[in-house]
Amino acid sequence: MTLYYGLVFGLLVLEVVTFLVLIIPLPFAWRRSMFKFLATNPLVAKAQYALKIMFIFVAVLFVDAVQRMWKVTTDGETMRDQAGMRDSRTESSFHAKKFYAQRNTYLTGFTLFLSLILSRTYSLITELITTQEELVAAKGGSSSASSVSKGGASSSEAEKLKVQLDNLKKQTAQQQTEYNRLADELAAAKGQSQSSRSD
After folding, report:
1. What is the pTM of this model?
2. Would the keyword Aminoacyl-tRNA synthetase be found if you checked this record's keyword annotation (predicted)?
């Protein structure tokens, strides 16, 4: 493996470790402090900038690896057409070239693909953290408002509320008795009209 493909492999291993660290279930406070550190540290910002430049080079290597794999594949097809030029050394050399071309293509392709997954996972986790912070703030605001309403109510307000509740109970009882009286009158009127019809 050449030096630059060795660096690409190291970058791939770094991405896998970073992805595993991102998806490890951590308590909310730890995760929030970790992402706050990542967002505010200037060294991390410089490292992200350097990684973006490295991914440009990895993309160039990916295009080169795809072209080489395509060339090796077409060379293999022409070799099959010329069946008279076969020996074990050329076949093993061809298979080695094909293996290295495929390895380099997959290595650079997976590195680029995992970088996209990492960026999306990072943005999703930061959105989740901000949503959780908003939820905690909303719960804290509602609980403080309810504690103020519970603790801030004076005894005179409680007495007023009790008087209003008693008044409502009396009005409900009066309406119920009036409803019962009207229902009895209606039933009596219907009973008389039915008896007069039967006569």
Report:
1. 0.60
2. no
